[in-house]
Write the structure tokens for this entry.
Amino acid sequence: MNNIFAKELQKIRKSQKVLTVFVLLFVLVIVWGIVTLFAAKQETKIDNQILLLAKPLNPTIDTSQFAKMQLKRSFSDAELANFPIYQLLTNEKTREEVVVPLGVTKKDLSEQIVVE
């Protein structure tokens, strides 16, 4: 009976030592983390160029630009309806690029070259 009691007491002492080591290791990791954060905070510097870019923008608006925009020419719907739009097509036979009005297909382009 005395032998069993002694073995159990040794197990408890071993587990106590392991627990003590883990607690000390945990405290060491926490202290190391705090020291690292403090050192990083001391080393971090903000570049002057970044500070210059972080300044607020000038909120004044140059109203003369609005007057210039109103003077620009605008097109009516009728003028825009007659406005030609062109596209660039590549002829499959001659491999040359041709500017044609919108709506002309490559097939139309090849038929037109055959006729000419």
Summary: The mean pLDDT is 82. Residues 80-116 form one domain.
